[in-house]
Design goal:
single chain, about 1000 residues, mainly alpha
Length: about 1000
């Protein structure tokens, strides 16, 4: 009776879906383009979501598409989300797909994974032993970044189709990785297709927020699969029957199935075997009708497989079913013949042909029957662990014992499963398992609990005060691990609730060290949840450890307090806390904490006026961390050292350190550190007059950051660039983005002063002087803590410039005198200990004098002289423009010639940087004075160093001298001991700064201005 059904329950004819299949094929064409062919266009990664109700035909569409893709030369890797009871396996679809990719392209895969095998082994154990490594809030992001880069590299040479099925069952870690992949993949001939059941996505389903997030990405296309029309149902039935069906039968099946492809199959098959008239209207009865027609042994096997999970290995079925091998094979043959079960692609197990049938069979189990089956599965696995794959064993065993309702057996293996989840960076799954362990805790005997030991504890979680090593696991240990897992996995609300419960328990069991640890966790969570700045919690932790003997926890609290103070309230207290933290950490051997504290101390040294000592400490910490392999601290050192160099105007020195640090952060997946470095690099390049590269660096910072604040720093840099280019609308948008990322719960001077400076610039550009003054008052009321002069001077300068520019309108006179007085007082009190901030001081005071119409040639000459010693072409151009104005106001032929040359130089820089406001001001001043900007006056400027007046660095002056002497790039390189490429870069920079079109024009200008003594131009090249 089953013979005809076996070959005709699925239509051999692919019905409908023309538009959907065309969309998928078009996406593959876009992804698979080969840049080496005539088109010259490289393929772009494609991301698609395929949704539809259960049974509508998603799997059949995917099969048709992937078969065609394989024929077109694409490598297809499929992975499906796994449902085991209520527990999904972390990263299961990615692990399966990567395994398939590795089998298909072993050499390409190995090359792409080189150097990152230990980290990628968290997803694919075959790559090697995943090291315990460091666990932190960026751990999952590091793994995600390496996975995306792996896929990009594997897909560089040939098209790859990655299919992830059944996202409605996906664990949280899989959802996070998919979202990261869709957001960040930018290279490779890669197509990613994910499917999900749309009818399962209720309002509170965990997949719903992800779908909403992906809908906002322009790079993701979403396909919704509709039900079949009556015509399509007729064609499907004809394919199943291998004959034209009776129209009345088509009408009846279409009406009852409502066009659902799977229900059409079931109804057509039921009609074939004569059961159609006996069906009820119950969906579950429809799904069970063919199962109940099987022999009893086959029904028994179907129930066993239904409770075992989405896919069950043959040997495990044999161990649980309790049948002889011959009877088992006959039962499986009957179930496969009826198209109830299918053999897995690997040929080692079975699964239901459609998950709807599995769910119906599982729902039909009696409660006691379900518990008994889970117990049998667990016992079989314990007796023979080789029945399932190594990477899935612990998770499945934990699920089986839990659903067998045996707490004593479940608790130990649930804890083992939490360790596995943690080692895979599946922190949300780890949290769920730890919460399950806490649920089971009171249900087991003291004897069971006393045998448990803390395993793989994270973040130096402290043991009970005075408890010896190897002491039994305590409930508070579970809570500590769960709070860390929640924080790392982004489940901060759950983690905060756990810390609150733990601290209530500690009120009855005083343990200051452990209590301090939980208060530190609360501090981090409160900041992450935007509930505060975390200081209250840190202060309580300090009180708890005060007076206790030195310990790792004591050192960590001091280090955290010092770092917090450096960022929020820098000063002597922060310095003293950092020194104590270094001492305590060294005493107790807490090396990571010591290195962190030394970084904080080094930064505070620089900020307090001892830069060389501070730089020495920062460089030594960087060397130590690289030598010792402490990558997360090295990442911070690569942020702090160049940042402090920039704080004293040594931007050019900071650039190579930042580029080295970015490469390091990419290698080790330190996403937040990388984002901070990109932001700092953008700032340095802006100062050095390399604005295009600065914009690219800021864009990287805004994209790669894992946390909000590093992305906010990227937005700040983009806002700063937009402001200098006169793009006030874009400035406002980026300023709003930065404010949203920074939030209002955790204000830091380094953020608030930067935002205030940009807000002042926007208000000034829009003529809102009252808003300029209000923003300035807020900043001055807060004050400039020690070390914040690098943010304070630009803010004061922006406000002073706005006052000077707005001195005429009557509306600008309100509160003007008071505002100027406060500005002058702030400028007197702000440090000018290094040449950069001395120059800013000169400039700010000049603007204040201009606001009172008291500026002079001498005033601006001092500012120009100060900036001529620095490597900041835009700043130099701005003060030259002001000096030109003062010269023209003074009058005289010599002053006009000097002013013309200054304006030409300033205009050249403005044009080169696309600094439109400055360019407009220069052009307007020249127009009013009737000065041409396109010629060089006969009387050249006569500063102490004429070449420096052109904005050339000392190295560029050397190169220009050799250009004027007729040297080629290769000869210049030989004489200056640099590479020809570097010489070429210097020449290009020189041409831009001089606003000339070629080497000959540059040489002529150097001769005309008498920049170099004739004898230096006659020298022959060396070497």
């Amino acid at each position: 009776m089953l013979g005809p059904v076996e070959t005709r329950s699925v239509s051999p004819v692919f019905v409908g879906r023309t538009d959907e299949l065309a969309t998928l094929n078009d996406a593959l064409t876009r992804a698979a383009r080969d840049a080496s062919l005539a088109s010259g266009t490289a393929g772009e990664p494609q991301a698609l979501l395929l949704g539809g109700e259960a049974g509508v035909g998603k799997t059949r569409l995917v099969e048709e598409f992937t078969t065609a893709a394989a024929h077109r030369g694409a490598v297809v890797a499929l992975g499906g989300c796994v449902e085991i009871g209520a527990d999904g396996l972390p990263f299961a679809p990615f692990s399966t797909a990567l395994r398939a990719l590795r089998e298909a392209l072993p050499e390409d895969f190995a090359a792409a994974a080189t150097g990152q095998e230990e980290e990628l082994a968290r997803l694919l154990p075959e790559l090697g032993e995943a090291t315990a490594g460091r666990h932190d809030e960026q751990g999952m992001a590091r793994l995600f970044e390496l996975t995306v880069r792996l896929l990009e590299r594997v897909a560089a040479a040939r098209p790859v189709v990655l299919v992830l099925e059944d996202l409605h069952w996906a664990d949280a870690s899989t959802r996070h990785l998919l979202a990261y992949l869709f957001r960040t993949v930018r290279a490779g001939r890669l197509l990613v297709l994910a499917t999900y059941r749309s009818d399962d996505i209720h309002r509170r389903h965990p997949l719903r927020p992800l779908l909403a997030e992906l809908d906002r990405l322009r790079t993701v296309r979403r396909i919704e699969l509709a039900r079949f029309t009556r015509e399509e149902v007729g064609r499907q039935i004809a394919g199943i029957l291998a004959a034209e069906p009776d129209p009345a039968q088509v009408d009846e099946i279409f009406e009852r199935s409502d066009g659902n492809a799977f229900f059409v199959e079931e109804l057509a098959v039921a009609g074939c075997v004569g059961n159609c008239t006996g069906l009820t209207d119950s969906l579950r009865d429809l799904l069970l009708v063919r199962v109940e027609a099987l022999p009893e042994s086959a029904q028994r096997v179907a129930r066993v497989v239904a409770e075992g999970g989405s896919t069950v290995e043959y040997r495990l079925i044999a161990a649980v079913a309790g049948l002889t091998e011959d009877d088992l094979i006959e039962a499986l043959r009957a179930a496969v013949g009826a198209n109830i079960l299918t053999v897995t692609p690997a040929g080692d197990g079975y699964r239901f042909r459609h998950s709807l049938v599995r769910e119906a069979v599982a729902d039909d189990l009696l409660p006691g029957e379900r518990s008994r089956l889970n117990r049998r599965y667990a016992q079989a696995l314990e007796a023979d662990p080789a029945l399932v794959a190594d990477d899935a064993r612990v998770m499945r065993l934990a699920s089986y014992w839990y659903h067998a309702h045996d707490a004593a057996k479940a608790l130990p293996v649930v804890l083992d499963a939490s360790v596995v989840a943690r080692r895979r960076h599946a922190y949300t799954e780890q949290l769920g398992l730890l919460e399950r362990a806490m649920e089971l805790w009171d249900s087991v005997s003291d004897e069971v609990r006393s045998a448990l030991r803390p395993v793989d504890c994270g973040e130096g979680c402290p043991s009970s005060g005075g408890a010896p090593a190897g002491s039994p696991l305590r409930y508070l240990d579970l809570m500590a691990e769960a709070s860390v897992a929640g924080r790392f996995g982004g489940e901060r609300e759950r983690a905060l609730k756990i810390t609150k419960r733990a601290l209530r328990l500690l009120e009855d069991e005083p343990d200051p060290i452990r209590a301090a640890w939980f208060w530190v966790q609360r501090s981090r969570l409160v900041q992450a949840l935007a509930r505060g700045d975390g200081w209250r919690e840190l202060a309580i932790a300090q009180d708890l450890v005060r007076g206790l003997p030195p310990s790792e926890m004591h050192a960590e609290v001091l280090a955290l307090a010092a770092n917090w103070s450096m960022l929020h309230r820098p000063g002597p207290e922060a310095f003293a806390a950092a020194e104590r933290a270094v001492r305590y950490a060294h005493m107790v051997g807490a090396r990571d904490t010591e290195l962190h504290a030394r970084l904080t101390l080094g930064c505070l040294m620089v900020d307090s006026g001892d830069p060389e000592t501070g730089f020495g400490e920062l460089r030594q910490v960087l060397r130590d961390t690289l030598a010792e392999g402490v990558h997360h601290v090295a990442g911070r050192a690569y942020v702090n050292l160049p940042s402090e160099l920039q704080s004293v105007g040594r931007d050019r020195e900071a650039v190579p350190v930042l580029r080295e640090g970015i490469a390091f952060a990419r290698t080790y997946g330190l996403l937040d550190s990388e984002a901070w470095m990109w932001s700092n690099l953008s700032e340095a390049l802006y100062s050095l007059g390399q604005w295009q590269e600065a914009a690219e660096a800021a864009g990287h910072a805004a994209r790669v950051g894992h946390s909000a604040k590093p992305r906010g720093a990227g937005a700040v840099r983009l806002a700063h660039l937009a402001l200098a280019r006169g793009e006030l609308g874009e400035t406002g948008r980026q300023l709003a983005t930065a404010r949203a990322h920074y939030g209002t719960h955790d204000p830091m001077p380094q953020h608030s002063l930067l935002l205030a400076r940009i807000a002042i610039g926007v208000a000034a550009g829009e003529g809102r002087i009252a808003d300029v003054r209000a923003e300035l008052r807020r900043a001055l009321d807060t004050g400039f803590p020690p070390g914040t002069h690098r943010y304070g001077w630009p803010l004061l300068l922006a406000a002073a410039t706005a006052e000077a520019d707005a001195r005429t309108p009557p509306a600008a006179r309100t509160d003007r005198a008071e505002n100027l007085d406060r500005l002058a007082e702030a400028a007197r009190n702000l440090t000018t200990g290094v040449p950069l901030w001395h120059a800013y001081g000169q400039w700010t005071r000049a603007e204040l004098l201009r606001a009172e119409a008291q500026d002079s040639v001498d005033t601006w000459s001092s500012a120009v002289t100060a900036f001529e010693r620095l490597d900041r072409p835009y700043d130099l151009a701005r003060v030259r423009h002001r000096l030109a104005g003062a010269l023209l106001a003074k009058g005289g032929d010599g002053e006009r010639d000097r002013a013309a040359e200054l304006l030409r130089l300033a205009g050249s820089v403005a044009a080169h940087l696309d600094a439109r406001p400055l360019a407009a001001e220069v052009a307007l001043l020249a127009q009013r004075a009737r000065l041409p900007l396109n010629r060089v006056p006969r009387q050249a400027l006569a500063p102490a160093d004429p070449a420096a007046a052109l904005g050339l660095t000392s190295r560029e002056q050397e190169v220009l001298r050799l250009v004027a002497a007729g040297r080629t790039n290769r000869q210049i390189a030989q004489e200056l001991f640099i590479s020809p490429k570097t010489a070429s870069v210097h020449v290009s920079n020189i041409l831009g700064k001089l606003d000339v079109s070629g080497r000959g024009e540059a040489a002529a200008l150097a001769h005309r201005l008498g920049l170099f003594p004739p004898e230096t131009l006659a020298a022959q090249p060396t070497g």
